[in-house]
Amino acid sequence: MKVTIFGTGYVGLVTGTCLADVGHDVVCVDIDPSKVDGLNNGIVPIFEPGLAPLVKANHEAKRLAFTTDAASAIAHGEVIFIAVGTPSDEDGSADLTHVLKVAATIGTHLARPTVIVNKSTVPVGTADRVHAAVAEQLVQRGVDVEFVVASNPEFLKEGDAVNDCMRPDRIVIGTGSDYAVQQLRRLYAPFNRNHERIVVMDVRSAELTKYAANAMLATKISFMNEIAQIAERVGADVEMVRQGIGSDPRIGWHFIYPGAGYGGSCFPKDVRALANTAKQNGYRAELLESVEAVNERQKSHLFDLIVRHYGSADALRGKAFAVWGLAFKPNTDDMREASSRRLLQQLWDAGAKVRAYDPEAMEEARRIFGDRSDLMLCGDALTAVRGADALIVVTEWKTFRSPDFQKLSLTLGDATVFDGRNLYSPKDLAVHGLGYYSIGRLSHS
Ligand code: NAD
């Protein structure tokens, strides 16, 4: 099928590439000319495992094209996806500027019957607004073109996005139009072969489904962080508690890891946006507000542990901290709302210096922080530790899991590790004379 995708970010680029890889003819359109130029020259602007070779292969096979020319892209697609960003507005609601801009652009050029599919995460009722924005342009042009706006929320995880796209747990299609269902079933048939994954529902339910999924996952994380806070105060070990509850299939093992708070481009903004939708509709979503509040507090917990160890924030002045992990989670270079950003700011505000290393997010860190005298971006984990007083682990990259504790003990000025992801066993660090602070477990200095 001929497919057009607006937005070549994590969602648009991965979706477009996977659709091309199963044989569809895909045109991706973005307003960022440098991104489009780069992609046309084989430069993939994000790190996503397995993505770059797939982009290259499908681009070379001429099934995947990149352009800034919206008019030709709109002429191309029988199905047009909207996969642009929906960041948080100041009041926590989803900012629909980009989505509605794309809708207006589609209306400006649409010339034949088309299914417009919204893949961006958007509040309930957005499909109606997209429909109105397209229709307004058609009226202005004095033309009558049939089109449907369907919702098809995306559930891929950064870090495993290609796999999620190729083998989705479910494909949610929200529409009242049989034609749209038929077109999207054709499109997704290659991903729906061995068992039924497509769930068809009305548009509003589909829009809400995406928020419900992310809010549920964020709730599990905040719940576990709350248990960790209690564990620290009563002398329990949250890792033992995790094992004790995860074995219950009604609870399960996923998303019950305590840590330095969730970040990324989805959970924080989606929890806020859903709470905002509730508020706008006369309901106070107290659970969601608490999920967000617990997470906000948790993002400062590592810093609180550091201050507790050194006695006061003033005592951090002139100290140097090695920070392992800047991305909001492993296997991505994405630092949007990452816990590392809060921590670094708090360290800098206290007059401390940071020596940071992340396997994939160094370029992004350079872009975000620029040149500053209190930040050294290091080429590897050991260089970050050299000359540092203590080590702080913020992202649970595999490569940080089994460091040489003896070497750390000899290298770190204050021989102390602050572990925001509970990667290590307190006993192992004690054996090597390292002070150890983690989340929801007894600490020792
Ligand atoms: P992103 O910021 O990585 O990419 C958005 C892209 O859209 C950018 O390249 C931008 O230049 C482009 N764009 C903006 N306005 C445009 C326009 N008018 N025309 C063409 N291109 C335009 O965003 P993302 O992470 O891919 O997220 C996109 C949507 O998908 C968001 O609503 C997000 O909540 C949702 N989502 C994201 C993920 C994820 O893991 N990142 C997962 C599921 C859903």
Automatic annotation (TrEMBL):
NCBIfam families, A to Z: NDP-sugDHase
Q: What is this protein called?
A: UDP-glucose 6-dehydrogenase
Q: Which residues does substrate bind? A: F155, L156, K157, E158, K210, F255, I256, Y257, P258, G259, G263, K329
- According to the UniProt entry, what is the EC number of this protein? 1.1.1.22
Which residues take part in binding NAD(+)?
D30, K35, T86, T121, E158, K269, R336
Q: What class does this enzyme belong to in the EC scheme? A: oxidoreductase
| Pathway it works in | Nucleotide-sugar biosynthesis; UDP-alpha-D-glucuronate biosynthesis; UDP-alpha-D-glucuronate from UDP-alpha-D-glucose: step 1/1
- InterPro entries per the record? 6-PGluconate_DH-like_C_sf, NAD(P)-bd_dom_sf, UDP-Glc/GDP-Man, UDP-Glc/GDP-Man_DH_C, UDP-Glc/GDP-Man_DH_C_sf, UDP-Glc/GDP-Man_DH_dimer, UDP-Glc/GDP-Man_DH_N, UDPglc_DH_bac
* UniProt signal peptide: none
UDP-glucose/GDP-mannose dehydrogenase C-terminal domain: residues covered:
322-426
Q: Which organism is it from?
A: Cognatilysobacter bugurensis
Role, per record: Catalyzes the conversion of UDP-glucose into UDP-glucuronate, one of the precursors of teichuronic acid.
A Pfam family found in this protein is: UDPG_MGDP_dh_C
Q: Which family does it belong to?
A: Belongs to the UDP-glucose/GDP-mannose dehydrogenase family.
Q: Which SMART domains match?
A: UDPG_MGDP_dh_C
